[in-house]
Amino acid sequence: MKTMTPALKTKQKDIGMQCRACGAITDYDGPLPACPTCQQGWLDAVYDLAETADIWSQELRQREATLWRYHELLPIQNLDHVVSFGEGWTPLIRARNLGLMLGHPNIYIKDERQGPTGSFKDRQAAIAVSAMKEAGITEAVVASTGNVAIAYSAYCARAGIKLWAFVTSSVPPEKMREAAIYGTEIIKVAGTYDEAKKIAAEFAANRNIFLDRGIKAIAAKEAMKTVAFELAEQLGRIEHQKNPMNTFEVTPFASPDWFLQAVSGGMGPVGVMKGFAELEAMGMVDKRPKLGCFQVSGCAPMAIAFEKGLSTPENVMQPVTDIATLATGIPGQAYEVLVELIDQYGGTIRSVSDAEAFRALKVLAQMDGFSVEPATAVTFAGLINLIREGVIKPEETVVVNCSGHTFPVEKHILGDSFAREMNSTYHAHEDGLLTALEKLDGRIRRIAILEDNLDAARLIRRILQAQGEFYIDEAQNGREGLELIRKNQPNLIILDLMMPEMDGFAVVEALKSDPKLRDIPIIVITAKELSPIEHRRLNGKIKRLLPKGDFMDADLIKDIARVLK
Ligand SMILES: *Cc1c(COP(=O)(O)O)cnc(C)c1O
Ligand SMILES: [Zn+2]
Fold it and tell me: Which of 67, 187, 466, 548 has its CA 20 to 30 A from that of 513?
């Protein structure tokens, strides 16, 4: 490690450093390669929490909207050393449409895509690079599955630190190029991430360059815990607003019931849970969330071990996945820590397939307007599974770490035919743009939606619009709907059962008794548990019955495609 510049060290806080292996607490004086007592690697920062609780109750509200608002509990002695792009305090946004689709009203997205380089690794880079600057470090080595390389590159450039980034050759070239733009030395390792990590460590040791130790180091976990501080503060405000009778002087923080994230090394959830532990110790929240951790099935050392009830991960030597961000086959101690947390506070570690992730990616983009990278889509696929299985209950509040932006848009998600070709010489005056577009696809179909719940109608319309071109007629009751159907003769009817004036059963009967309409296929979407008599009323008359609240677009689209064929 480089020697420290004494002038930079003006001590302002009492920060301790505790070793996970031996428990020894020593003074924190900047990043160290190991515990000074037992030489083990996993170190955690400890602070004077009582004093901080006091200060926060007075001052927090007036502070700037960055993660530095929590600086008392961050491992930087002197704020002059902070390297910042204004990171942190990303929005907490309700996933309204996804919630409607899953029948779950309390899904919140912590939008980490809005960091300066587009992923939550910006927090880690901000703290780790500031700590390097404070320690007088001028050159550093990092191993990365992609996003750490990009985030550290930006922060190191700003701090004047030369960076060596070791990445595997499976990291998308666009990501490597992005890191290289900042002047980072990119070393492509033909091998797994765990091999790249080893080579990076040897390189750093040989050249006597500072090595970033990721999750084992203090900076990474301290950075991730700011996600917990922020979301507890944001959730506290949201819950406070729901109940205007509250008369607290200071809006209290609130813990969600679940925190969800896709894990590779597991640094995110480990750090977030440390944040909740500190908030609880300060009396600011009264519980800790359950953890939902997700891996890809082609590289799931933690999920497999968790399912089997093992105390160490089932290491994966050859990951098989297109999602490079999550290809850590040897997660090490993080697994033990996560299992301990899950034993105590609840939760699970699961895996999803690449295909499930890509499907979730499209659903989230098309339903709620969030374009996320595949690693992040893994979390949403996991969320969908846990809600469908009833593991996450509708009344529980869920916060999803929306960890990274779609960057780059990977080819296998959209393929090459994502746009339609159009000639610039179409005859606008004759046809109009719409007609010209219509001619591109002669098979535009007409669908009638009869649904009195406007949110549900909007969701169905959105699902259809995202899939292709349809003419869509909508009516909010059976009587109007029937008139529309008579007039427009749609190719398909999507029908709700509970509607005013004329309900769905009556509509079905009217349609079946009209020779001109009786062959139009009907898909019924209903929130109602049907009685045997009601089932009989629909029997043989409709193509498909879909329960409202837990239909996913894939089901609906599959049915529509089948019916329209
Ligand atoms: C790093 C990363 C993850 C995995 O996070 P860990 O907490 O390190 O396991 C997930 N998603 C994205 C976008 C990432 O960059
Ligand atoms: Zn120790």
Answer: 548
**Count of C-beta atoms within a 10 Å radius of residue 543:** 14
**Domains held by the chain: number:** 2
Arithmetic mean of pLDDT over the chain: 90
pTM equals: 0.87
Peptide bond into 6 cis (omega under 30): no
Angle between helices 173-181 and 147-159 (to 10 degrees): 10
Domain range enclosing 325: 100-108+223-409
pLDDT digits 0-9 by tens, 336-347: 999 999 999 999
Residue type, 467: Q
| Helix orientation angle between 218-242 and 121-134, rounded to the nearest 10 degrees | 130
3-state secondary structure (DSSP) of residue 496: strand
Closest approach atom of ligand 1 to CA 265: 9
Ligand 1 atom nearest residue 264's Cα: 9
Asked, for residue 463, whether it belongs to a domain, the answer is yes
Alpha-carbon distances of 322 from 2, 268, 304, 412, 516, rounded to whole Å: 37, 21, 19, 9, 51
Judge if 399 and 268 occupy the same domain. yes
The last residue of one of the domains, among 409, 426, 461, is 409
Return the closest-CA partner of residue 187 out of 175, 195, 178, 196.
196
- CA 128 to CA 132: how far, in whole Å? 6
94 Cα: distance to centroid of ligand 1 (angstroms): 21
Ligand number nearest to the C-alpha of 32 = 2
Measure the CA–CA gap between 306 and 334, rounded to whole angstroms: 13
Sign of the Cα pseudo-torsion (205, 209, 210, 214, in order): negative
Residue 137 CA to ligand 2 centre (angstroms): 24
Backbone angles phi, psi at 342, to 5 degrees: -70, -40
294 vs 266, 303, 386, CA distance in Å?
A: 10, 7, 11
